[in-house]
Predict the structure of ISSoc4, transposase orfA.
Amino acid sequence: MSRYSLDFRKKIVEAYEKGDTSIRKVAKRFLVSPDTVRRLVKQYRLTGDLSPRKCGTKKKSILSKHEEAVIDIVEAHPDLTLWQYSDKLRDKLGINVSTTMIDRFLKQHDISLKKNIQERKSSNRRSTESASRLLVKN
């Protein structure tokens, strides 16, 4: 949605400031919502300015401050899960981050987590062997 012009904003506030009408009547007259009139009047009273405010700014990630360290951890331990990365970051850097934040960071840096298939197969064999040993003993 486009912003209202400064001139239009002034007309709305001036119409309300005259004092002989309500917010709803001003809103109906200028074909805007009552909330718009309230917001413009409040902004004018607080700042004396009616220019549009900046739209939301993008917050920087906590991980961006530790970019090199995070990348080093990922390169040193490529087979960890996001949960394990979260634990490592808490232990090594003292920052608590969610798995979603880590995933977003990795995507922004074009890092994909490819697990080592050989490592998985060997760990599966170990668990299968130990399970079969348990069955034989009983």
Summary: Residues 10 and 50 are 7 Å apart (CA to CA). The first helix runs from residue 6 to 17.
